[in-house]
Amino acid sequence: MSSGHKAMTLFVTVILGLLLVIVGLCADWPRWSWAASAGLLAVIGMVTNRVLTPKREPFPRDLLPEPDLPLPDSARQDQRVTHVALPSSVADYDFSFSATVRWLVLDAPSDAPYVNPAGLAIDAVLQRARAVTAQQPPHRSAFVQHQLDGALATMRVDATGRVTAMALDVSLSLPEHDRERLAKLSDVRKDEDVWEHERNYERSKRAYLGEDVLKDTGSAVVWWLSRNEKEVEGAVDRIGLLARLSAAAKNETVAPPFEHLVPPPRVVLPDDGTSADWRQPYDGGDATASDNGSGDGLSVDSLLEWFGFSASDADVDLFAKRLIILASAHGKIEAVDEIKRRFDPEQAEQTEQADDGPEESAPPQDHEPPP
After folding, report:
1. Going along 278-330, which residue ranges are E strands?
2. How do beta strands 94-105 and 76-87 pair?
3. What are the φ/ψ torsions at residue 269 (nearest 5 degrees)?
4. Could you list the pLDDT tens digit for every one of the 371 residues in the chain?
5. End-to-end CA distance of the chain, in Å?
């Protein structure tokens, strides 16, 4: 009797014995009933054992003319392929493919030609791998490797129908020098994108300022007020400046209604050692260098411009008198004469004639030594 039959017989006997015990306790059987139930349980166990025991075969199976032997395993073979170049979606950037190719030889007609199953299996696997890699960019080699793991994990019949093949331990990589080139190209493309966005932003900002904000003085003032809503007086003070900005943005002069708000241009004092012609009448304009080139320093006109005096300023004469007093105190007689010629040429000529008259009219005197 096998171990399975014994276990089943024991299990049935134990279950029935427990049921008899439970029923006897509940029904309060007399003592002779317990002995009868034990005999009944033994009989039931024997019957169960006989029922579960399989019948013997009249003749042993291993002595039959064709015994049921286990089927032999199919002839399965493996071969490792390494460093096979597979194309990517970018020209001249090939993946390096490695894998273990496994195949099974299929049944063929008796008149079928002899084949190399390893070659057919490897070719079938490479064709399947090529179809996947040719659609992927080269910088995603790790992602494509996982795709190949799934695409080549199934046994499939090759084109000739003689073998079924699959791939194990798939490895896909990109050469180091190609990765470096792709990284450099990627950085350049990113820099170009950033530069192009910056250019577009700058163009948009220039168009906004030139065509909208600085279109005219009123637009510039409104734009400034929109950014400084609580500084109305500041906007009024900056109308002249905004008018100049608006005119400069369009390469035009300041509009006539705002000319009185534009300050006069600043005069830069010359520092090249040239002197202006002080004999020119003061008109508030830029000082020019003298024709004879005599004297060094700055002209009186430039000095007045530097102090902020205009041609119509009433304090110019008073300032000139104070300059004369200051020059006289320091003994600058030539500067005093030049300032006088600049502001009162007639009086300066009369002074010169008065100074030169006695010298021209006085006869020479001979002084004889005393006897």
Report:
1. none
2. antiparallel
3. -65, 135
4. 456 667 777 777 788 778 878 877 787 778 777 777 788 778 877 877 777 776 666 656 656 666 555 655 556 789 999 999 999 999 999 999 999 999 999 988 888 889 999 999 999 999 999 999 999 999 999 999 999 999 999 999 999 999 999 999 999 999 999 999 999 999 999 999 999 999 999 999 999 988 888 888 889 899 999 889 888 888 888 888 888 888 888 888 888 888 887 776 655 555 554 444 444 444 544 434 333 333 444 567 777 777 777 767 777 778 888 888 888 888 888 888 888 777 765 555 555 555 555 444 444 444 444 43
5. 188
Side chain identity at 231, as an amino acid letter? E
Phi, psi dihedrals of residue 101, rounded to the nearest 5°: -95, 130
Q: How far apart are CA 129 and CA 342, in angstroms?
A: 99
- Environment class of 150 (CB within 10 Å of its CB; exposed 0-12, middle 13-18, buried 19+): exposed
Of the CA atoms within 13 Å of residue 3, those in its CB half-sphere come to 0
14 CA to centre of own chain? 79
Position 44: which residue type? I
Amino acid, single-letter form, for residue 158:
D
> What is d(CA 137, CA 248) in angstroms, rounded to the nearest whole number?
52
Q: Which of 60, 55, 44 is nearest to 12 (CA)?
A: 44
Signed CA dihedral, 320, 322, 323, 327: sign only: positive
Q: What is the DSSP letter of 315?
A: T
How many CB atoms are closer than 10 A to CB 300?
A: 20
- Cβ atoms of 167 and 129 within 8 Å: the answer is yes
Please classify residue 122 by burial: count the beta carbons closer than 10 Å to its beta carbon, then call 0-12 exposed, 13-18 middle and 19+ buried. buried
Structure tokens at 220: 């510039």
Give the integer Cα–Cα distance in Å for 42 and 77: 59
Q: Which of 146, 154, 94 is nearest to 124 (CA)?
A: 154
CA dist 350 and 346 (Å) reads: 6
